[in-house]
């Protein structure tokens, strides 16, 4: 299933969404360039979040080594940078489609600056959850899947039964359907089984795993909680 539009007429253009899409695409083209030069693996190791390295830096800093906080700050940057990197064409395409369809209405509702903050906090939170689940992992964590899960959680809480224009591709046929927004909560986790299609062949980049899905589930709950808090206010 491919979401196309929620048919909600927004009063403002989703400028933040456009900028985020531009940044994601620009960095993905950079990844392709590095992959062609066999440099992508080293770049992902430097830019992606490595749970074991982050955990070791924090443990060293808490043990009484003041200079270790410098390494904590360096690894903290990867909490943000990693959410803008992707390991395959299918992953970035799927994430950006969901970002556009479900994110543009949220940006219009909560405002541009608040949406950008929500986007970044969601990414940091879901990445940090993966560190807590598997602090000894040496596999770089990349991708905005956790962020999109948070956006989806916020959207579905606000518009659970909103009909989403959807295309279901069947071989050479494309069947148009109207599907309630809440169905995409389930489909979001299913479609990630296909995120290996068009892989950039990063030898040790993070693939979908138990920790990844659990982090995204936390992101889903965070997005829903965030939207509920706004509704109460």
UniProtKB/TrEMBL annotation:
Keyword match Protease: yes
Single GO biological process annotation from the record: proteolysis
TM region positions: 15-32, 44-63, 69-102, 114-133, 139-157, 169-190, 210-230
- The secretion signal range is none
State if Lipid biosynthesis is listed as a keyword: no
Record-level Gene Ontology MF annotations: serine-type endopeptidase activity
One Pfam family linked to the record? Rhomboid
Classification via InterPro entries: Peptidase_S54_rhomboid_dom, Rhomboid-like_sf, Rhomboid_protease_S54
Domain of life where this protein originates: Bacteria
Provide the protein's localization.
Membrane
Keywords in alphabetical order? Hydrolase, Membrane, Protease, Transmembrane, Transmembrane helix
Peptidase S54 rhomboid domain mapped to chain residues: 79-230
Tell me what topology the record assigns in the membrane. Multi-pass membrane protein
Give the GO cellular component terms, alphabetically: membrane
Question: Which family does the record claim for this protein?
Answer: Belongs to the peptidase S54 family.
Name by which UniProt lists this protein:
Rhomboid family intramembrane serine protease
Organism in which the protein naturally occurs = Aetokthonos hydrillicola Thurmond2011
Q: What is the lineage of its organism?
A: Bacteria, Bacillati, Cyanobacteriota, Cyanophyceae, Nostocales
